[in-house]
Structures are given as structure tokens and as C-alpha cells.
Write a structure and sequence with these properties.
This protein has about 260 residues and is α+β, with helices and mostly antiparallel strands. Helices cover about 15% and strands about 45% of the residues. Strands 2, 3, 4, 5, 7, 9, 11, 13 and 14 form a nine-stranded mixed beta sheet that branches. Strands 6-8-12 form a three-stranded antiparallel beta sheet, with no helix packed on it.
Length: about 260
């Protein structure tokens, strides 16, 4: 059996990164300027209305991500996601902010939920994305994903899982990706697959397929080899049984 997985971070929250920035003094969200709070609220509201023109007006024309995804590709991916999940709900919380020249650097966490239905199968989407953004002249100009969690479930009783994977690893450091079924096992067959991929802009619009294999244990356990350059990775796993499916994705940041 083949399942197509989706890398959703770019179209679930605020996007990815043009690069880092020097550490500045973070301020409490309670003291954030009204203009900044309004920008974040406007992006959420436009996403909830699925208003593409308004979304584009809040992004810089020069917007490009560290993964090589440009504004046009971002828009294309977002429209496809909205078509698949017509009832997505976005909710963003401002965690901290700091003045940076004529703009602001902020950290937020975005929660996204929604459902899709294809071939009489209902799919529930849940995502949590923590990110850092830079705003200038009332537009979003660059971003960095700090952590990313995405879960898709389907069926009456999708497997409940516990995920063990680091958010960051050092360059040249191998690590483990474990997805463990967190409930009593039965005599039912369990199939699944775990995969690690370097983050690439092509994978957003043409996601990889996942080929299932029968499992001999209650989970998936993958050793991810060391990376030779500081490039982020997506770690994904799918578990399937007769009464449900769960597909999860985490981002691991490889740092110097």
C-alpha cells in the first residue's frame, strides 16, 4: 500500500526562514505595539477567510524561504491546502517581540485544525508551529521555523502514539526517531513506515509517497545518520491498522 504524505509547515502557519538574526532583548507580549498585534490578527483572519489576495498583501513581494520556496509557490501550496481542507482554523499566539530597526522580530505559536473528506474517508488535521518572523513596513519579510508538529488521523480509532525525536541536533550528530503505539496491542496487524528527508522546496508541492510494511512490534524505530551540513530535516511516520490511521511529522533543526 502507498500513502502520500504532506509537508504542511509552509501552508499551515507563517512559513519558513530567510535566515537567522542576532539575539535581541525579547519583550513581553503584553507590551507589544498595537500595530504589531494588528498585523498578526490580520494574517490569522485572512487565513481563516481563505482570502489569498489579503494574505499576499501582508507578505513582501521579495518573500523567499530558506528552503527556496518563493511567494508564488507559497500561494500555490496554500490554495491547494485550502481546497483539501476547506474548514481550516488558525489561531496564533504572540510569545515575545523585539524592536529591530524599523520593524519587529517576533516569536509566535500557531495552532491549526481542520478536516478533509475524500473517498468517504474523513481526515483530521492538527498542527502546532512555533516560528520567528521579521516584519518591516507592515509586511512579513522573513521567517524561521523553530519547531513543527503535524498530525493527520483517520478512522474510528487511529493508533495513539508517543513520539521521541529531538527538536535540534548538532552538525555531525546521529539521532533516533521513535514512534511508539501508546496503548495495548491486540492481535490486529499493524503496518507502517518511518522516513527522514532533507527539507526541499520541491517536496511541498510534490510530496513523497510512503510504502507500508507489516510491523513486528508496536511502533517504528529509526536511526537517522549524522548530517554533514546544517540542513533541517522532516521526520515522518505513518501507522495503519483496520480501525484507523495516524501520520505524524516533526522538524529537526541541524545546527552548527
Amino acid at each position: 500500500m502507498m500513502y502520500r504524505r504532506w509537508f504542511l509547515s509552509i501552508v499551515l502557519g507563517f512559513g519558513l526562514s530567510l535566515g537567522g538574526h542576532s539575539a535581541l532583548r525579547a519583550e513581553s507580549p503584553d507590551k507589544a505595539p498595537i500595530e504589531l498585534k494588528s498585523l498578526i490578527t490580520q494574517i490569522d483572519a485572512a487565513a481563516n477567510r481563505q482570502d489569498m489576495e489579503r494574505i499576499k498583501s501582508l507578505y513582501s513581494d521579495q518573500y523567499v524561504t530558506a528552503d527556496g520556496l518563493m511567494l508564488g509557490e507559497f500561494s500555490q501550496g496554500l490554495q491547494k491546502l485550502w481546497k483539501d481542507y476547506p474548514n481550516l482554523e488558525y489561531k496564533t499566539e504572540l510569545l515575545s517581540w523585539e524592536k529591530d530597526g524599523k520593524g519587529w522580530v517576533v516569536e509566535t505559536v500557531t495552532m491549526v485544525t481542520g478536516t478533509s473528506e475524500k473517498n468517504a474517508r474523513k481526515v483530521q488535521l492538527e498542527a502546532k508551529i512555533k516560528s520567528r518572523q521579521t516584519f518591516q513596513d507592515d509586511k512579513l519579510i522573513r521567517q524561521e521555523i523553530l519547531s513543527e508538529e503535524t498530525k493527520l488521523t483517520s478512522g474510528e480509532h487511529p493508533p495513539k502514539v508517543m513520539v521521541n525525536v529531538p527538536e535540534t541536533v548538532k552538525l555531525g550528530e546521529a539521532f533516533d526517531f521513535d514512534v511508539i503505539v501508546d496503548e495495548p496491542l491486540t492481535d490486529e496487524l499493524l503496518a507502517g513506515m518511518a522516513m527522514a528527508e532533507k527539507i526541499d522546496s520541491d517536496r511541498y508541492l510534490e510530496p513523497s509517497k510512503m510504502e507500508l510494511e507489516l510491523l513486528q512490534s508496536g511502533g517504528l524505530f529509526k536511526r537517522v545518520p549524522a548530517e554533514d551540513k546544517a540542513q533541517n530535516r522532516w521526520l515522518s511516520a505513518i501507522l495503519v491498522r483496520s480501525d484507523g490511521i495516524v501520520l505524524i511529522t516533526r522538524r529537526v533543526r541541524v545546527i552548527p
